[in-house]
Amino acid sequence: MIERTVKQSNSCNLRQRTLVTIIIAFILLIGIILSGALIGPEKLGVNLQLRNIPPSFAHLFGTDWLGRDMLARTFKGLALSFGVGLTAACISTIIALVLSLLSSVNKAMDAVITWLIDLFLSMPHIVILILISFAAGGGFKGVVIGLALTHWPSLTRLLRAEVLQLKNMNYVAVSKSLGKSRLWIARHHILPHLIPQLIVGFVLLFPHAILHEAAITFLGFGLSAEAPAIGIILSESMRYLATGMWWLAFFPGLSLLAMVGIFDLLGRNIRRLIDPFHSQKL
Amino acid sequence: MMDINQVEKSDHTLPNSLIKDKTPLFEVNHLSLTFRQYKKGLRESSTQVIRDFSLKIHQGEIVAVVGASGSGKSLLADAILGILPENADVKGDLKFAGEELTMEKQMLLRGKDISLIPQSTNALDPLMKAGKQVQSVIKRKNKKSIQERIFHKVGLSKKAGEMYPFELSGGMARRVLVSTAMVSEAKLVIADEPTPGLDEHARNETIHYIKQLADGGKSIMFITHDITAALEVADKVAVFYAGETVEIANIDDFTGKGENLRHPYTRALWNALPQNDFIPLKGSQPLPGETINGCAFESRCPIAVEYCAQKPPQNKSVSGGIVRCFHA
Amino acid sequence: MRFKRISLYVVKKIVKLVSLLLTICILSFLLVSYSPIDPVQTYVGADMMRVSPEQQENIATYWGLDESRTEQFLSWGKAVLEGNLGTSLIYRDSVADVIAERFLASLVLMGFAWVLSGIFGFLLGIVAGMREGTIVDRIIKGYCFLLASTPAFWLGLLLLMLFSVSLGWFPVGLASPAGILAEDVTFIERVRHLFLPALTLSIVGVANVALHTRQKLIEVLQSEFARFAKAKGENGFSLLWRHGLRNISLPAISLHFASFGELFGGAVLAEQVFSYPGLGQAVVQAGLGGDVPLLLGIVLFSTLFVFAGNLLADLLYKLIDPRMRKGEVQ
Ligand SMILES: Nc1ncnc2c1ncn2[C@@H]1O[C@H](COP(=O)(O)OP(=O)(O)OP(=O)(O)O)[C@@H](O)[C@H]1O
Ligand code: SF4
Ligand SMILES: [Mg+2]
C-alpha cells in the first residue's frame, strides 16, 4: 500500500494567503506614504532643548543634534523616496514599453534595441547615475532624471521576449493577413497581454529605484543637506556615529529597508497571482 | 485469486516452473494518481490522471501496457518507482515479490531490483559522459569493462562511452538507456516507450534486446502506444484508457477481427491497424481531470447502452483475461 | 576550422567592445560638456591659485578651449586613444596613474568580497534548493530577499557602529590612511581597513548567487535526467554530487562573473562608508568635485571592468561546457 497526499502548507490556501499579503502590503505602503506626506514643517523644526535624545516614547526614533524628531524626518524621507521612486518607475516603464513594442517592428530595430539594453548594462549603474547627476548640474533634478532614465533595461528585456512570443501567435498572423495596421495589432493584441507583466514590472521597479535614490543621495549627489532624504539622513549620521548616537542611522535605514521590502513583497505576490507558472517556486 | 497464466500459451524460452503457480513478481491494485496544481489567480485544481489501475507481472514475463498519448503511462512508471513529482497524490496497493511495496521500500529497490528505461533521451545527464552514466548502475568492480562489454553487445563502440549525450545520435542514446537496464541486476524492468523515433532496424534491435532481457529471467513492463511492437514481444497486453486498465488480454486473443478480445476499445485498436481493417477510432479520450460518472469509453463506444454512462463498470475476469465492460 | 571560429569570436567581441566604448565616449562627453558645470571652467577656476600659468596652458590645449564641441571631442578622443586621459584636478596626477593605484586597492576589496559571497551564496543556494519547501529553505529565501532590500551602505554603517564604535576592534573609517603612501602602511593595518568593507560587500553579494543557485538546483532536480538518476537509485546527497553540482556550478560561476557591475556599485558605497581609498571613492570625489578627466576616465574604465566580467562569464561556458567546447571542434 502506498499512499501519499500533497501536504497542504497552511490551513488557508495559497490564493487567500497571497491576496491577504497583497492587501496588507498595500495598506502598509499607503500608511507610510500618507503619514509622510501629512507631516508638516512644524514637526521637522529645530528644537535645541531636545537635542540628542535616544529613542523614547515621546520620540520613538530619538532626536538629532539639532533636536529634530527623527521619526518625522524618517517618514518625510520615505515619502520623498516614494515620490522619486514613482517618477522613476513610471518613466522607466513607459520607456520599456515603447522600446519593446518598437523592437517588434523589424529585425534591425530589434538589434538596435538589444544593443541599447547592452549599452546601458555595460556600465555600473551607480556610475551612470553619477554621470547624469553631474551632467544635470547636480541638484535633485539630476537625481530624478538619472533614476528615471536608467531603470528600463531589465524590464525592456522581459517585455521584448514577451512581445516576440506574442508576435508569433496565430491570431496576430490572422490580423496581419486581414490587413490590420501594426498599430491596431499592437493596441488590440499585444498590449492587453503585456499588461500583467507591465504591472508587475512597474511595482518591482520601485525597490531598485528607491535603493538607488538612497544610495546616490548618500554619496552626496543631488539633494541639499536640508531635505530629509534617507540617504542624506544616513550620510549626516556618519559624523555622529563615533559619539554613540546609533539611532540616527539605525531607524531611518531600517524603515527604508522595510519600505523596499514591502514593495518587493507586493510585486512578487502580484506576480504569483497573475502568473503562477513562472513563479511557482518563489 | 484468479490466475491468468493457467490459460497462457507456454513460453518455450522459459522453464515452466518460472511462470506457473507462483505469486507474481510484481502486482499493482487500484492505483490512482491525482495532480494538484495552481491555475491562474492561484486557484487550486486537481486532475485525476490514473483512476483504477491493476496489473500483475510474473517472472520472465513481458507485459505490454498500451495506451494513447497522455493516458498516464509514464506516470504509472513513476508511481511504481516512487519518483513522482511533488504535486502528485497517489494511492494504491503495490506488491513486489510477494511483499508489500511501501515508499521506503521503493527507495531501496529502485535501481537495484526495479530498473527503468526512460522514454526520453533527455534522461541522460547532458554534462556526464555516456559510459559513466551506465557505470553508475553497476555495483560490482570493473565497472568500466562491464560497461564496455554491454556497449559492445548493443552495438556501441568504446568511443561512445567517452561521448557526451549531445554527441550521440538519437538511436545511440536509446541504446545507452537500454544498456543501463541490461547491466543492472534488476528483476523488473520498466521500458517506457523505447521504440518510437527509431528506424526499422533500430526498432527491431531494441525489441530484440527487450526479449533478451526477458530471456535472462527479468520481467518486463513494456510501455508503448505501438500495438504492433507490443504484439511482437509481449505475453500479455494491458490496455490503458483514460487512466484505467480496460482490458488485460493474452497475446493470442489478437486474431481475426478481434472476436476473442473482450473490450470494444481493444477491438477498435486492433482493427485500426494497417494490416487489419485500418478503421480509425473516432473521437478522443477524455482529458485528465474530466469527470466521468460511468464508463470512461462511453462517448466513443459503438455498443454502449444507457446505463454505461451512469455507473462505472468493474474489472471482471473473462476467458483468462480481465475486462472492464458491462457487455463482455 | 577551429582557428577560424576562435578568431571570429575574438573579432566579434572586439567589435562589440569598441562600439560600446565609442558610444560611451560620445555620450559621456556630450553629457559632461552640456553640463552647466562647465568642465574647463571648473577645472581651471576651482583652484586658480594653485594652477600655474603653464598648467593652465596645458589644460587649455588638452581641452581645446576655444574650439567647437566636435573639435574638442576629437582632440580629447585622440588624446584618449594615445593613452592620455588627462590630469586629475583633485589628485594632481595623471588620471591613468590615479585609476591604476586606486583600482588596485578596490580590486583587493572586491576580490575578497567576490570570492566570499560566491562561496557562501552557492552553499546557501544548494542547501535551500535541496530542502525546497522546508523551513530551512524558507529561512534562507527570506534572508536573501531581506538582503536584496537592504541598502548596502546602511549595512556598512551598522557594521561600523558595532565593530568600530562599540567594540573598537577596527578603526573608524575616517582615520584611514588615505594620504599615506601605499608602502608605508603595514600589512596588519591594511587588513584592518579591508575587513569591514569586504564583509559588507560579501554579505550583500550573497543574495543574488544564492537565489540563482537555488532556482537552478530546483530545475535540475525536476529535470528528466534527475528523474532517471533517481530511478537508478540515486538520492539526496549522491544525486547532488553526481548530477546536481555538475549542472549548477557553471551557471552560478558565470552569473557571478556577470555581476561585476553590481560589485563595483557596492564597492562605491562601501568605500564611501569606510573611507577606503579605492576607485569607488575616487569616482564620487570626481563627480562631486567636478574633476572631469577623472570622471570620464573612470566611466571608461568601469565599462572595461564590467565587460571583462561578462567576457569571462561567456568564455567560461565556451571553455568548460562540453556542449560548447566540442561544438567548436565539430
Ligand atoms: N507534473 C505534472 N503536473 C500535472 N499534470 C501532469 C504532470 N505530469 C504529467 N501530467 C499529465 O498527466 C498526463 C499523463 O502523462 P504521461 O506522461 O504519463 O502520459 P503518457 O501516457 O506517458 O503519454 P506519452 O505516450 O505521450 O508518453 C498528461 O496529460 C499530462 O498532462
Ligand atoms: S461499459 Fe458500456 S460504454 Fe463501456 S466499453 Fe462496455 S459497452 Fe462500451
Ligand atoms: Mg510517456
TrEMBL record, chain A:
Name the Pfam families for this protein.
BPD_transp_1
Q: Where in the cell is it found?
A: Cell membrane
SUPFAM superfamilies assigned to the protein according to its UniProt record, in alphabetical order: MetI-like
Q: Which residues cross the membrane?
A: 20-40, 78-103, 115-136, 190-210, 216-234, 246-266
Q: How does it sit in the membrane?
A: Multi-pass membrane protein
Give me the Gene Ontology terms describing cellular component.
plasma membrane
Q: Which UniProt keywords apply?
A: Cell membrane, Membrane, Transmembrane, Transmembrane helix, Transport
Primary location = membrane
Biological-process GO terms, alphabetical: transmembrane transport
Q: Where is the ABC transmembrane type-1 domain?
A: 78-267
Please state which protein family the record places this protein in: Belongs to the binding-protein-dependent transport system permease family.
According to UniProt, the name of this protein is Peptide ABC transporter permease
Name the source organism.
Answer: Virgibacillus profundi
From TrEMBL, chain C:
Q: What is the lineage of its organism?
A: Bacteria, Bacillati, Bacillota, Bacilli, Bacillales
* Descriptive protein name: ABC transporter permease
Q: Which domain of life is it from?
A: Bacteria
Record flagged with keyword Nucleotide-binding: no
ABC transmembrane type-1 domain: residues covered = 103-317
Instruction: Show the InterPro entries listed in the entry.
Output: BPD_transp_1_N (IPR045621), MetI-like (IPR000515), MetI-like_sf (IPR035906)
Q: Please give the coiled-coil regions recorded for this protein.
A: none
Q: Which residues cross the membrane?
A: 14-34, 103-130, 142-170, 190-211, 252-274, 294-317
